[in-house]
Specification:
Elements (H helix, E strand, L loop, with lengths): L1 H4 E14 L3 E8 L3 E7 L18 E9 L4 E11 L8 H15 L8 H18 L2 H15 L18 E5 L4 E3 L9 E4 H12 L2 H4 L6 H18 L6 H9 L2
Antiparallel strand pairs: 1-2, 1-4, 2-3, 4-5, 6-7, 6-8
Helix pairs in contact: 2-3, 2-8, 3-4, 4-5, 4-7, 5-7
The structure holds zinc ion.
Length: 250
Amino acid sequence: MNKLRHIKTDAIILKTSASGEINRNFIFISPIIGVQNATAFGAAKHSSRFCASVQPYIVANLNLYKSEKLNYLKLEDISNVILNDFINNKLEYIYLTSFFTDILLNSYISSDEFKSYFYLLFYSISILKEQNDIYKSFLFFTSKFLFLSGYKFNLMKCSHCGCKFDRYYFDINNGGVFCENDAVGKKFFIDFKSCNLWENFYIGKYMDLKSEIIDLTCFKQIYTITVNIIKNIFEKQLVTLNFLDEIFNK
Ligand SMILES: [Zn+2]
């Protein structure tokens, strides 16, 4: 019985907020318990060992205690802390990571997906940290997110006639590309180069995608389509999408 009350897990902190004068609440994602809320008592005091470590985007090992009576998680210890405070150095990083958080907090994540979503965020932050590449980080996060959410788009040939072309139009309702003759609406132009890049991010592994070079023309085509797909998925407007436009659509 007692064993279940103590939880030890890796985690990435997504958000923090003040709780009273001296405590700090935080939301984190864990590969074993998913997205959860917890309280770090005393964390707002500078003398607290939690003060510097309970911060957004730190990766750490958490020791939590589950109070059954009050139904909350209490932080008892935090170790192996990796600070990701580089994010605060650039507005672009802050905007992009808050978009990632927005998506995670507004998605239903089933227990068999906790691990995938944890690593989705972990690697998306790693791309920013190691390569300073906001384009690759966005493409990685959104492609994998759509894949995990069950969206698989037909990008390699026309969805109607089955032939390959240099130019296509993406159809959000039908989830794929159509050639000049078969496309209806023709709202979202996408060329075969962008289709290849996007497909790579859908199916590729992090280790292979690390070395991908992102062509900005391709990025813009994929970005416009992705943002529209995300708007369709989330019925309520995600505020952070406006931030993204400031960095990618300028
Ligand atoms: Zn066709």
